[in-house]
Write a structure and sequence with these properties.
Strand content: 25-35%
Number of domains: 2
Largest sheet: 3 strands, antiparallel
Shape: extended
Strand order of the largest sheet: 1-5-4
Structural class: alpha+beta
Number of strands: 11
Helix content: 10-25%
């Protein structure tokens, strides 16, 4: 079963061991007599239907779309430049990017962030290499990152 609400409790402690009140300014915060801040949040997701009885969640997002970012004045200037100047920069960045490969470098996939690798990965057996080297060895970027 999943809880319909989650209660968070937080307090700070200074170097002398005294409790410090932490207020983030939310309207759901309450402070108890000992200086501990409590917040009760509804366990909801805009991207899933949560079944509280059996503890499952069903994805409601049909397709991943990247949120459009607000164009800055710099990015609009870059867009106006001829593409021949910006094209050589991209491959150089990709080729020199450090990637991580499990199983002493023998895994078929690579990761950009070692902390995104599965928790059962033996980090002592992870090898770093450039993305260009990984691609040259026939490796591909993992679909799980």
């Amino acid at each position: 079963m999943l809880p319909r609400q989650v209660e968070l409790q937080y307090v700070g402690i200074d170097s002398s061991g005294n409790l410090l009140e932490i207020k983030l300014g939310g309207d759901k915060e309450t402070l108890d007599s000992q200086g501990v801040t409590h917040v009760v949040l509804d366990n909801q997701s805009p991207n899933a239907e949560i079944n509280y009885a059996d503890g499952t969640a069903t994805n409601t997002v049909t397709e991943f779309t990247e949120a459009p970012s607000e164009p800055s004045s710099e990015s609009s200037q870059v867009t106006e430049q001829p593409s021949s100047e910006s094209e050589p920069v991209q491959p150089i960045q990709e080729e020199s990017r450090t990637v991580y490969v499990a199983r002493h470098g023998t895994a078929d996939v690579y990761w950009y962030d070692i902390n995104s690798m599965p928790s059962n990965t033996n980090k002592a057996n992870v090898v770093t290499m450039t993305e260009a080297d990984a691609l040259a060895q026939g490796k591909r970027h993992t679909s799980k990152e």
